[in-house]
Design a protein that fits this description.
CATH class of the largest domain: Alpha Beta
CATH architecture of the largest domain: 3-Layer(aba) Sandwich
Number of strands: 15
Strand order of the largest sheet: 3-2-1-4-5-6-14-15
Radius of gyration: 22 Å
Helix content: 25-40%
Number of helices: 13
Order of helices and strands: EHEHEHEHEHEHEHEHEHEHEEEHHEEH
Distance between the termini: 21 Å
CATH superfamily of the largest domain: NAD(P)-binding Rossmann-like Domain
Largest sheet: 8 strands, mixed
């Protein structure tokens, strides 16, 4: 198959879904790979690095979409990109409906493209490989962000995360015990912080309690406990995620108003709407704002600040998905790997994901009812 790697158009999105190492494997497997000019530069991968391993040059989005059977992206196509999509073209990208207009998704439907939300696709063990990979990186980098904005030079409380002899460390509260929360807890613990993790799933709290040998304080994520911990937290992190849906607002404005002046809120859930009533999306070039005396960091594509590391992690999981479909074809792959169907958004003009259907106000169809693998023809 002919596979195209698109250059991201979203402001400050610097990641690339496939690195030169991934392209090398695709070319070795007999596929043709086209790379849009400059696609990897944000992650410090030059065009030449792709050409050396066998990729071909595409000078524009128009050329790329015209030549490729499969388009691989980080962010979903915007309206201009969606208009370039051909009938039966396969698109791999994140879903993230909060950052794209309904018009872009309707165009993909009308074009009768096959589109996947890679962050929704699962493995047989029901894990989300793309989501887990990005969440692991995010959790590890959250202390960098928190420490920076706790500094007095950034109007923070002037607190060193790990404290020192006779000096208290920062109190860090993490809302959500999933991959981001678990990874962040490890990173903050390693710096000597006092770490609290709240979740409404008791089994998740048990797992974290055991994993960190009871060094993390675990609590149920109900309104009473959230309000209590918010008052004394120096750093409050929103790591709430509901797959394929908008994030619920679990931290009310009144709670933020009771937080310490100069405390830091990091809403990692902002790409799905955010879990704080006071959250609004920011950018890497202007990442924070202060509301009710609290510093808010709400960057949807936060991992673009560590774009090269994030791209390596993304490549590791995206490559397998693309290789499967490129080798077996769409329907056969979906039959062989039925867990991939969870990430199927549109199929030949039909909406196959309930979350997208709700956004567009249309009906959705269960993928298994319309997929016909070649082996059954």
């Amino acid at each position: 198959m002919k596979i195209g790697i698109a250059k991201e158009t979203q402001i400050e999105e610097k990641r690339v879904p496939l690195t030169p190492a991934g392209v090398y494997n695709l070319v070795r497997a007999g596929h043709q790979v086209y790379v849009e000019e400059g696609a990897g530069l944000g992650s410090s991968f030059t065009d030449e690095a792709y050409y050396v391993v066998g990729a071909k040059h595409a000078s524009s989005p128009q050329e790329l979409y015209e030549k490729a059977d499969i388009i691989v992206k980080v962010m979903p196509p915007d309206e201009k990109e969606a208009a370039l999509v051909k009938k039966s073209q396969i698109i791999f990208s994140f879903f993230q409906p909060n950052i794209r207009s309904a018009k872009a998704f309707r165009t993909l439907l009308n074009r009768k493209a096959y589109t996947f939300g890679t962050d929704l696709m699962t493995l047989p063990d029901k894990s989300y490989p793309v989501l887990v990979a990005m969440s692991e990186i995010a959790g590890r980098m959250l202390p960098q962000i928190a420490g920076r904005y706790l500094e007095t030079t950034n109007q923070g409380r002037g607190i060193l995360l790990g404290g020192g002899p006779g000096v208290p460390s920062a109190s860090v509260v993490i809302l959500g015990g999933g991959t981001v929360g678990t990874s962040a807890a490890r990173a903050f613990l390693g710096l000597g912080c006092q770490v609290y993790v709240l979740d409404n799933d008791l089994s998740a709290l048990r797992r974290i309690d055991k994993l960190y040998d009871r060094r993390v304080i675990t609590m149920m994520a109900n309104p009473y406990e959230i309000e209590k911990v918010a008052r004394f937290s120096d750093v409050l992190i929103g790591a709430v995620h509901v797959t394929g849906e908008r994030t619920p607002k679990i931290v009310a404005r009144d709670i933020v108003m009771e937080m310490k002046e100069g405390a830091v809120v990091i809403d990692y859930s902002i790409d799905h709407g955010g879990c704080f009533e006071t959250s609004r999306a920011t950018t890497l070039s202007n990442p924070v704002y202060i509301e009710h005396g609290v510093i808010h960091y709400c960057v949807p594509n936060v991992l673009s600040s560590v774009a090269r590391s994030a791209s390596h992690a993304l490549n590791h999981v995206t490559l397998g998905l693309v290789m499967e479909v490129a080798a077996w074809g769409l329907d056969e792959s979906l039959a062989r790997q039925p867990n991939y169907q969870k990430g199927l958004l549109t199929y030949n003009g039909v909406c196959t994901h309930q979350g997208l259907a709700d956004i567009l106000g249309i009906e959705s169809v269960v993928p298994a009812t319309i997929i016909v693998p070649e082996s059954k023809n």
